[in-house]
Design a protein that fits this description.
mainly alpha, disordered N terminus, about 0% strand, Four Helix Bundle (Hemerythrin (Met), subunit A), elongated
Length: about 110
Amino acid sequence: MSLDTPRTETRPERLTAHEARQRLEHERASRLTQLQAVDEAGPDTGEQLVSAQKDTIRRVLAEVDAAFARVQDGTYGSCRGCSRAIPVERLEILPYTSFCVPCQRDVG
């Protein structure tokens, strides 16, 4: 298929709860693997770098847990800033996001 050929398949406007859970489980597993790798890093790794990496991974894990709660309560996929649907493409990339791109820019 050429890049000039229009796509005939349509994308759904929202992920199903099952799809969202699958993506979030994958994200959680990836982050836990990263955390384990950081924990197993050798003594040559700088302590500040390891601490910063762990903090970042733990923050994302907290966001993943919050996204699971949104799936459970039915608000997953709705932007916390403007209440519009977050595009599926964004949720495929960042399944734990709670903001659309314009609102994410506003919150920093």
